[in-house]
Amino acid sequence: MDLAVALVLCLCSLLLLSLWKQCSGTGKLPPGPTPLPILGNILQLDVKDISKSLTKLSKIYGPVFTLYFGMKPMVVLHGYEVVKEALIDLGEEFSRRGSYPVFQRATKGYGIAFSNGKIWKETRRFSLMTLRNFGMGKRSIEDRVQEEARCLVEELRKTNGSPCDPTFILGCAPCNVICSIIFRNHFDYKDQILLDLMERLNENIRILGSPWLQVRPNSAVFFPALIDYIPGKHKKFFENFACLKSYVLGKTREHQASLDINNPQDFIDCFLIKLEQEKHNQELEYTVENLANTVLDLFIAGTETTSTTLKYGLLLLLKHPEVIAKVQEEIDHVTGRHQSPCMQDRSHMPYTDAMIHEIQRYIDLVPTNLPHAVTHDIKFRNYLIPKGSDILTSLTSVLHDDKEFPNPEVFDPGHFLDESGNFRKSDYFMAFSTGKRICVGEGLALTELFLFLTTILQKFTLKSPCLTPPPSVNYPFFRKHIKYNFLANFSNDYVNCNHNAVH
């Protein structure tokens, strides 16, 4: 009986604490739906389509509103104007990384993506400088991507018409590019180490893509302090992350043994040289721990986002053969069938450039962005947002803005073409986020997407003979497992691509 009374008292105390915390900010934070004690607004959201829920709420509360995830408030920014105002016009004030307990627990506050303060600024600056020195945006990195594009095509040819799931192959190509920069490694597509790395990475992406973790990115959604004690998929995430980190630390030890400070060969070499130069610095931005997490950030971001965009891009192209025909006509005109596409060709291929941007806009890969936070108390649109408050920016609301992109739910490369058929840049293109936290690898990703897709379409014709019409391409469908058949036709150096969904 005493235990039952104690439990009731504890529950009542938690409820009171929840109500007090939720009410203590009244008059400061933007308006929003009334939260429930402990649960917040969780039950008022469609966990399978958060972006749709945010759009509905924005029509009621405006472009700036507050949601509670558990007892913690999050300010939501919906629409281009308010996202631009926060992340670009007030970029420094909104530059802090918001709460993401799963990754914060895994990275311990190091790396690029989930660090803050001086560690983030110094690590990001160093990483950008080093990536540029190793060719990002230059001819040297283009040569690496072109060579990998040729390897990718050869792997697709090896299928000889048998059913194949291209997910792994499409992941290997960008993985090898980023590994050549950070590890000085190039894996054969059948290498067991590569197979293990990709499997753990893909499993973690599947875990992070589950609806529960999308609502609040951890299984201990209401009590992050209990994340080590609550069962759930995040346990497997931590296990996989630890294995990936162990591999990076092993490579780091190899680099330490062979390091030539006068001739750095890759990202790890450069970081180790900087670590030695800063060994008396008490700030500790340059440590082996930070190196490991920074390399993992680059590896994960440099592999997963590009490979996923390639996979969904091929699916979209299968549904739109008229787009394939126009792109191949442009390729034939600019490069022909046998000359490898290069980045200089992009300025002469406006439709292809528009097609790639439209793929990224349409699939909306990171619909709610990674969470931001404000660095200090700030007055924003007549609201007072306290220091450290989490900020959720809806990139869907920008990428699918119907004023900038007529019929945004329709896949149409014309969204990025002017009346004369020239490529049209758009400030609304925020597929890599924007502002201070924009993706470090944006330049590399755009290079890879252009060269991989043009090389594939130069050598292959993609068709869907078994499904007429092809399956509907929409956000839930993207989360399905897709299979393709690459059917070789060596008489004209093209192949047909047949696909079906596995439910």
From TrEMBL:
Keywords: Endoplasmic reticulum, Heme, Iron, Membrane, Metal-binding, Microsome, Monooxygenase, Oxidoreductase, Signal. Gene3D superfamilies: Cytochrome P450. Its EC number is 1.14.14.1. Its cofactor is heme. Coiled coil: none annotated. The keyword Protease does not apply. Residues 1-25 form the signal peptide. It is found in: Endoplasmic reticulum membrane; Microsome membrane. It holds the Pfam family p450. Belongs to the cytochrome P450 family. This is unspecific monooxygenase. The lineage of its organism: Eukaryota, Metazoa, Chordata, Craniata, Vertebrata.
